Amino acid sequence: MSPRRRKPSKHTRPVSDRPLLGGTQERQSRLDGDWIVRRVSGTASTKAYRCPGCDQQILPHTPHVVVWPENPSLLSAIGGAQSLDERRHWHTACWQRRR
Q: Which of 12-20's residues contact partners 24+ apart within 8 Å by CB, and which partners?
């Protein structure tokens, strides 16, 4: 075994324990529940994502928000996913227009 210790994967840590990578996080209420909204800066955004609000790509280096339910769905809770599977990347304007 290697003498170096391996850090746990970021995918197995709770979302709240992950670094913000230059963004801020807050709780927002909508008609369909409470959401955790994390702002991602353009410099921290290195991949392309598809926005569920407009079905268009969010290109790398574009500031946007990552949103997930404060309380995971029953299926996520049973599977121990802690709402990671319910996390979505939105254009900031598309999320703001959503009610």
A: 14/82, 15/68, 15/82, 15/83, 15/84, 15/87
Give pLDDT tens digits along the chain (99 positions): 556 666 665 555 554 445 545 568 899 999 888 999 999 998 988 999 999 999 999 999 999 999 998 887 766 556 555 556 788 999 999 999 987
End-to-end CA distance of the chain: 52
- With beta carbons less than 8 A apart as the criterion, state whether 56 and 90 touch: no
For residue 92, give every residue at least 6 positions away whose Cβ sits within 8 Å of its Cβ, in sequence order, or none. 39, 63, 64, 65
Task: Determine the 3-state secondary structure of 5 from DSSP.
Answer: coil
The three-class DSSP label of residue 58 is strand
Number of CB atoms found within 10 A of residue 60's CB: 11
